[in-house]
Design goal:
The complex is a heteropentamer of chains A (about 260), B (about 230), C (about 375), D (about 375) and E (about 300). Chain A has about 260 residues and is an alpha/beta fold. Chain A has helices spanning about 45-50, 75-80, 100-105, 115-120, 120-140, 155-170, 185-200, 215-220, 240-245, 245-250; strands at about 5-15, 20-25, 30, 35-40, 60-65, 70, 85, 175-180, 205-210, 225-230, 230-235. Chain A has 2 domains: about 5-90 and about 175-250, P-loop containing nucleotide triphosphate hydrolases (Rossmann fold, 3-Layer(aba) Sandwich); about 95-155, no CATH class. At the D-E interface, α1, α2, α8, α14 and α16 of D face α2, α4, α5, α10 and α12 of E.
């Protein structure tokens, strides 16, 4: 582990009822980079995210964030330490407005206590106003500012993805994990997300992406890891990975119909 | 074979389809492309009776089918393989397939099962495994195989390549092509517009709940508007 | 829309029809409170019929003080909260006196409401000592007290049956458990209580308790509770090969016990009031009741007499005013279906009316 | 079309009559009753889907209320304050009961409505509160009501924490059954711990609270006192609901995993909502004890738990005002039905079905209302 | 002693299991706790009683054959009760599909209150006494006492469970129920009439509950209109104990609950009988949060 590594795993393993979903994966994410993790379905990519963020308890190995071990921490602790994520199958808070969705992400930055909330003290109002302002900024960052007072259930699929990103950014994380951010999007929309991810990185946030869309992966990644059957089978720069025979065999395929334009 | 005339569909107060008209002829592969929320999946759901249309008509082989419940529509020969595969995770592969042939007379089930398994040899290897334990690609195969069990005349596939590795995507498209050789008509909804148009005969472009462009697949692939918006230049 | 209007109209019509039109003057209202619905509705029905019978008889004779008597039923669902609501409703409607409630846990909180309003309450079945121990001047009961009954049962077990080992079962209710504890208290040092068990009311399977009791090998099994559970207990105990006789209280003293328990109930004892069949007025009660409502329940006759006492007192007092009426009840010397009734200072019946009954050839017979 | 409908209708009504037949034997008078109920519930179902009139009226009412919030609250409160002058002790008593249940429903709404945790044994907390007050003020006469009141809340809260620590790790209906078990366990302990709780005999002689020399003895005074407590609790709960606490609760209700990933300690927030709701439940119990003056295990049955839950759902899950309205309806309506005597609960059951079929989202709905307004405005533009 | 308690537990556990199956089946397809199911069980018991009281009016060839007669009573009562399940779903639950999760709970409760009072008013609040029929003679074997009827009841429960297990796993309709449980949306897309499947599920559950009701009535000899309340709660607990939605789980849970209660009441204090069951339930759920045989609760998006 070098000083510039912000997130590292050391032979991380997860077992479900005897089946190894993740078999000793060691990766390191460098400060400020955009890193992609690709691999066939069931290779363990989402499991990897879940294990890193504390949603699953790893059965072996260790995880470090900014040099601090987070292996056995719960998801909320990990989040407080600056690791945010989005979900593959979207999980917006459907019965809350967009603004409230993002405000939930601001929760860990809020200072006013219960008594202040009951008494509606000036400190409470100040805190609420400041966080609402920040939430609005984040919504406008992902292009949803106009719809801030609508319920999240009324968003389209693509908008929900944007909302999830805004919500994750509300944590002010140092690392952002995105699980298939452009799945089901057309090239125009994909372009927008790529732009967004670049902007996020420009704010100094390290981004880790799971994605199948090779245009996106090859287009913005600084480095790529390839997982298969819970193991790392390749890593490197985009053009290296694309040319790696093991990756082609397990994942990319050689067919003309493969959308790796 | 299938004709949609000016159909309208509401999700609560939101108008999902604002007058979609399209046609599918016997033996064709027809693709619907469009952005998220344009109404592609809604169109399929309207056809299979999952959501009731509030206006317009749907005709299949000359008979109105709008307003019928889903199971009757399946009975008439339209099979809908929905987005996200939706395998019955607790049921075995065999049970999944048998459920696909739920409406077949008992005497024909075994024979149809054999035929479908012949098309997907991988599934016969896993015949008594629970559906949920299959890999993503296998599940997609199972979903298609299940949709074929009811001997449909028209197969509707919703985003069959979604979330699959590129190598698997290629296989799925090969499978769709081979289905046509078996005499099946296919209505395909795909995000992967390039690949979809490549294997289909005709295409429709949906935008905000209505059809804005349609025509021969080859023509669509070279239409600058399509290229710009859906094929990514 | 049309349908909805029609629905609304029908609902309104139903409500309107069920309401009495206008305030009838010239009637005397008396309340009858008990559980008319809910799990113990059978007791409510028995009580209501008893009260009805008395009221009808009085009305047939021209009412009291020249006015007709109107019966106001109040459903407390055996719930203390509802009992208070019923009590308040009675006072608001100008009821001059109340027969009820059934459960002690309903009678006690309701009695406070009646006390404040200065209305007499005569309970027909609340046997918990606490009810009259509150020393409210307006509260009376025609039934006995658990301590009296527990004493009667305990003395009988020790002196007549000369038992050495007793098993006690109760149904965890105010009545059942209270009675069981009083019984236990009165057994004295020479008797060993080999088991003290509680059961859940409303169940059908009591085999675990019965198995346990049987293995404790008692000479006598006491049951504090109601005939429904009593019948099942006796039946299941005998089916398991048990031989000791059961003894219970007014709660099991019912034809229903014999039906539920079948032949197994033979030899079962129960403490209860003396045989009313020998009292001429009771004979009349039994006949009239059967004619109208079928077989009387255990408490029907208590409700009937409580009503008669209330109405007789109104007649004696010559007024429906609370104070006078209460004084008249306290002073009454009444002979009715239950025999001779006078109240002591607390509002309890002066002479403890308990005797012991035994099931012989499928009938309850008084033990001489 | 009519032919098919007629056949369906015939099938429906005849079928119902057929299955009821064994029970109706000689009681032919019940036949129209059964048909009426069958028809009524069905009409509600048909009507719920087909008209917007009711929804329009409701929207307008809600809009007006929202627009003149302060005024509306003022009017309702002063009406509630003045009501006792115009009504009998009976009505006051019924309303006081309704107020206590409204407190319970408001408290339960924190877990069921806001946090999305189904609790089926809520009456257990009510019982603990009531008995704490009973034991402290009457049984052992250790302290007065004003000390017992907060202690009752705290005792219930302690139970909430003790139950919550193992139970809140469970999900959905499993948790619900554990809380059901808790309610039953509390009741059984109340019945059997004779030395402490008086067993099935309960505790008698709990005094009404007093301010100095002035005792809240008249039903009217106690009504005002309960009303004040309700207002206070509703205020606290609605303010919490509209703060970061409420947002975290709703976030957990909507999606636990996502809430956790946003740094919310799901377990701790669950426990907080659970113990708060237990606390207010205990407070309601304490009030109940002094209102009745007598408590026994009979008041804390499973049926009561479900009744409170009904109030929350009936008013609209997650809606604080809805809970109060639900409590009012479920306590007051059965009182009106007393006219039906024996048929009271029968009618009540049918009304409950019909109501839910007619308004599946509860009387006031939850957030859906504001959303409906929003959507309509969007359509208009 | 131990064997006696065990036998007692198994007898009552069989009826818990039969009722629990109804909860679990319905929960599977609708993810709904059918709170009125206990009343269905009660109605079943009453139907059995009504039919038995009609026996004197039956043809003589039936009256002569006790076993045949009981079979007829059981099947007819259960069949009518299945229709109660059908109408319950049609009236109280079907209009509420897609409503918030707790809404059907309230209409279920309404139905429960309605049915209870309906029976109370039409049949009276008194206990109804079954005629003392067959097999009530006590047999004692090695210190364990039981009646012939008890054995018949245990075996019938097991046979009925085997029947339902076969139905769910081996028939096309049964597998369709399983499919609908996993994914009703997809089920409709393969041509399953989901409404029919749900109706069938309710009917099957009610059928079993009615069988339990009739057997309990015959065995204990008396029934009343409040029977469904405790029976319902106990069976529901049993279903959760085994893992709600899981068919074998309901059976295991039912028997286990019966045995726990019998042993608890027998060896400790019977006053706390209901508490043991809940304590065991809490303990089981703490270690196996989805019940004994339940699978992990799926994370739903």
């Amino acid at each position: 582990m070098t000083a510039s590594d912000i997130l590292t795993t050391d032979s991380l393993s997860v077992t479900f009822g005897g089946v190894k979903a993740l078999a000793g994966v060691s990766i390191s994410v460098r400060q400020g980079e955009i890193l992609s993790i690709i691999g066939p379905n069931g290779a363990g990519k989402t499991t990897f995210f879940n294990a890193v963020t504390g949603a699953y308890a790893p059965t072996g190995g260790r995880v470090f964030l900014s040099g601090r071990e987070i292996t056995d921490m719960g998801p909320d602790q990990v989040a407080r330490l600056g690791l945010a994520r989005s979900f593959q199958n979207l999980k917006p808070f459907a019965e809350m407005t967009l603004l409230e969705n993002v405000l939930v992400g601001r929760e860990i930055h809020m200072a006013s206590g219960m008594l202040a909330a009951i008494l509606r003290s000036p400190a409470f109002h100040r805190d609420e106003a400041a966080q609402k302002q920040r939430a609005r900024e984040l919504l406008s960052f992902v292009g949803l500012e106009q719809r801030r007072d609508q319920l999240a259930r009324n968003l389209t699929y693509g908008e929900r993805k944007m909302l999830e990103i805004a919500r994750a950014l509300a944590l002010e994380p140092s690392v952002l994990l995105l699980d298939e951010p452009v799945a089901g999007m057309n090239p125009t929309e994909t372009g927008f997300v790529m732009e967004l991810v670049q902007n996020i990185r420009r704010q100094g946030i390290t981004v880790v992406i799971i994605e199948h869309d090779m245009k996106m992966v090859m287009g913005i990644s600084d480095r790529i890891y390839v997982l298969d059957h819970g193991e790392l089978i390749a890593e490197g720069l985009p053009h290296e990975v694309r040319a790696n025979p093991a990756v082609i065999e397990a994942y990319l395929g050689g067919g003309t119909l493969a959308p790796a334009h | 074979m299938l004709r949609l005339t000016d159909i309208q569909l509401l999700y609560g107060p939101i108008e999902a389809l604002r007058g979609v008209s399209l046609e599918v002829a016997e033996g064709e592969i027809v693709t619907l492309i469009g952005a998220n929320g344009a109404g592609k999946s809604s169109t399929l759901k309207a056809i299979s009776g999952i959501h009731a249309v509030v206006g317009g008509s749907i005709e299949f082989r000359g008979q109105r089918i709008d307003g019928l419940p889903p199971h009757e529509i399946v009975g008439r020969g339209i099979s809908h393989c929905p987005e996200g595969r939706r395998i019955f995770a607790d049921l075995s592969v065999r049970e999944n397939l048998l459920m696909g042939g739920y409406l077949l007379p008992k005497s024909e089930t075994a024979q149809q099962l054999e035929q479908v398994l012949a098309m997907f040899p991988r599934l016969s290897e896993r015949i008594s495994q629970a559906g949920g334990t299959l890999s993503g690609g296998e599940q997609q195969m199972l979903a298609i195989a299940r949709a074929l069990m009811c001997k449909p005349a028209l197969l509707m596939l919703d985003e069959p390549s979604l979330g699959l590795a590129p190598i698997m995507v290629a296989k799925i498209f090969e499978t769709i092509l081979s289905l046509r050789q078996h005499g099946l008509t296919v209505l395909l909804v795909e995000q992967n517009a390039g690949a979809a148009l490549e294997i289909s005969d005709r295409g429709y472009v949906l935008e905000v709940g209505s059809v804005t462009l349609s025509g021969d697949s080859r023509a669509l692939r070279s239409d600058p508007r399509v290229v710009q918006a859906y094929l990514g230049g | 829309m049309k349908k909805l209007i029609l629905l609304a109209v029908m609902c309104l019509a139903t409500v309107a029809c069920s309401k009495k039109t206008g305030q009838e003057t010239g009637v005397i209202k008396i309340g009858a409170a008990g559980q008319l619905t809910g799990p113990e509705a059978v007791f409510g029905a028995d009580m209501l019929n008893g009260v009805k019978l008395a009221v009808e008889e009085w009305n047939a004779k021209g009412g009291v003080l020249g006015k007709k008597i109107e019966l106001v039923p109040g459903d407390d669902q055996a719930e203390p909260r509802q009992a208070v609501a019923v009590a308040n409703k009675f006072t608001a409607e100008g009821v001059v006196g109340v027969v009820g409630h059934f459960n002690s846990s309903c009678s006690i909180p309701a009695s406070e409401v009646y006390h404040k309003a200065g209305i007499p309450q005569i309970s027909h079945a609340s046997t918990n000592p606490k009810l009259t121990d509150q020393n409210f001047d307006n509260v009376f009961r025609v039934c006995g007290r658990d301590d009296q009954q527990g004493k009667a049962a305990g003395n009988f077990a020790v002196q007549k049956l000369k038992v050495k080992r007793v098993a006690v079962i109760h149904d965890k209710t105010t009545y059942g458990q209270g009675f069981a504890e009083e019984f236990k208290k009165n057994l004295g040092a020479g008797v060993e209580v080999v088991a003290f068990e509680g059961i859940t009311k409303g169940e059908k399977d009591y085999s675990p308790v019965v198995t346990k009791v049987k293995s404790a090998n008692p000479d006598l099994i006491f049951f504090g509770g109601i005939f429904t559970e009593g019948g099942l207990l006796i039946k299941q105990y005998k089916a398991m090969g048990g031989t000791a006789p059961f003894i219970g209280g007014d709660g099991i003293m019912s034809e229903e016990l014999l039906k539920i328990g079948g032949p197994a109930t033979e030899g079962t004892y129960a403490t209860f009031g003396p045989d009313t069949k020998e009292v001429p007025s009771a004979k009349g009660f039994n006949e009239n009741y059967r004619k109208k409502y079928g077989e009387p329940g255990v408490y029907s006759v208590y409700a009937y007499d409580a009503t008669n006492i209330l109405l007789q007192s109104i007649k004696n007092a010559g007024a429906t005013d609370g104070k006078k009426l209460i004084a008249a009840i306290r002073a009454i010397d009444y002979s009715g279906a239950l025999g001779h009734i006078q109240f002591d200072a607390k509002g309890d019946v002066k002479e403890s009316p308990y005797v012991v009954w035994k099931v012989e050839s499928n009938k309850f017979k008084q033990v001489k | 079309m009519n032919g098919r409908n007629l056949r369906n209708d015939l099938f429906y009504y005849l079928g119902i009559l057929l299955i009821c037949a064994p029970f109706l034997k000689m009681h032919t008078v019940y036949v129209p009753l059964v048909l009426l109920v069958a028809w009524g519930v069905r009409s509600c179902a048909a009507f719920a889907g087909e008209s917007r009139t009711f929804s329009d009226i409701r929207l307008k009412t809600v809009n007006t209320l929202v627009a003149h919030q302060t005024l509306a609250v003022g009017v309702i409160l002063s009406a509630a304050l003045l009501l006792p002058f115009a009504s009998s002790n009976y009505l006051i008593d019924v309303l006081t009961s309704a107020i206590l249940y409204a407190i319970l429903a408001t408290a339960l709404n924190i877990t069921v409505g806001l946090t999305g945790v189904l609790v089926l044994g809520f009456i257990g907390f009510y019982g603990v509160g009531a008995y704490t007050t009973g034991i402290l003020t009457a049984k052992f006469a250790l302290c007065g009501f004003w000390i017992a009141l907060p202690l009752s809340g705290l005792a219930a809260m302690l139970c909430g924490v003790l139950l919550g620590i193992p139970a809140l790790r469970l999900k959905g209906d499993y948790l619900a059954v554990v809380t059901l078990g808790f309610g039953e366990i509390i009741r059984i302990f109340l019945t059997n711990l004779n030395g402490l709780t008086g067993g099935p005999n309960g505790i008698l002689g709990i005094k009404r609270p007093s301010f100095g020399l002035f005792t809240l003895d008249h039903p009217r005074d106690f009504y005002w006192f309960s009303l004040a407590m309700l207002a206070l609790i509703v205020l606290i709960v609605s303010r919490l609901a509209n703060s970061r606490y409420g947002r975290s609760w709703v976030a957990i209700r909507e999606n636990e995993m996502a809430a956790g990933a946003l740094g919310i300690n799901v377990f701790r927030k669950h426990l907080l909502s659970f113990s708060l709701s237990a606390f207010f439940g205990g407070i309601a119990g304490s009030l109940f004890a002094v209102k009745q003056g007598f408590i026994s295990p009979d008041s804390f049955t499973f049926y009561e738990s479900v009744l409170v839950l009904c109030m929350v759902v009936l008013g609209g899950i997650g809606n604080v005002i809805g809970s109060v309205t639900g409590a009012l309806l479920l306590i007051v309506v059965p009182e009106f039905l007393r006219e039906f005597s024996l048929y009271r609960m029968l009618v009540f059951g049918a009304v409950m079905i019909a109501f839910m079929v007619f308004r599946p989202n509860g009387l006031l709905g939850s957030r859906m209302i504001t959303q409906e307004i929003q959507d309509r405005e969007d359509d208009g533009q | 002693m131990f064997l006696q308690h065990l036998l007692n537990g198994i007898t009552i556990g069989g009826s818990y299991a039969l009722i629990a199956l109804g909860y679990t089946l319905v929960y599977g397809v609708l993810k709904l706790i059918n709170f009125a199911h206990g009343e269905i069980y009660m109605i079943g018991a009453y139907l059995g009683f009504i039919l038995i009281s009609l026996i004197p009016a039956m043809p003589p060839f039936l009256q002569g054959n006790v076993i045949l007669m009981m079979m007829v009573v059981l099947i007819v009562a259960a069949a009518i009760c299945a229709l109660y399940g059908f109408y319950l779903e049609k009236i109280c639950y079907r209009p509420l599909r897609g409503a918030p999760k707790l809404t059907p709970l309230i209409s279920a409760l309404g139905a429960s209150i309605f049915l209870q009072n309906f029976v109370m008013i039409s049949m009276g609040a008194k206990d109804q006494i079954f005629p003392q029929t067959i097999g009530m003679k006590t047999i004692t074997l090695g210190g364990v006492s039981f009646t012939l009827l008890q054995l018949v009841i245990i075996f019938s429960s097991i046979a009925l469970m085997a029947l339902i297990y076969w139905f769910i796993n081996r028939t096309r309709l049964g597998v369709a129920i399983k499919a609908t449980s996993t994914d009703p949306y997809m089920a409709s897309l393969v041509g399953i009439n989901v409404d029919t499947v749900i109706s069938v599920t309710f009917m099957a559950g009610s059928f079993l509950a009615a069988c339990a009701g009739v057997m309990i009535g015959l065995y204990y000899g008396s029934i009343n209109f409040t029977l469904g309340y405790l029976g319902g709660i106990k069976a529901f607990t049993a279903a959760v104990l085994g893992g709600i939605g899981n068919v074998p789980g309901a059976m295991v849970g039912g028997f286990l609950l019966g045995i726990i209660e019998a042993l608890g009441a027998g060896y400790f204090s019977s006053e706390y009988k209901d508490v043991y069951a809940f304590f065991i339930l809490i303990a089981v759920l703490v270690f196996r949060p989805a019940g004994l045989l339940g699978k992990g609760v799926n994370e739903r998006a």
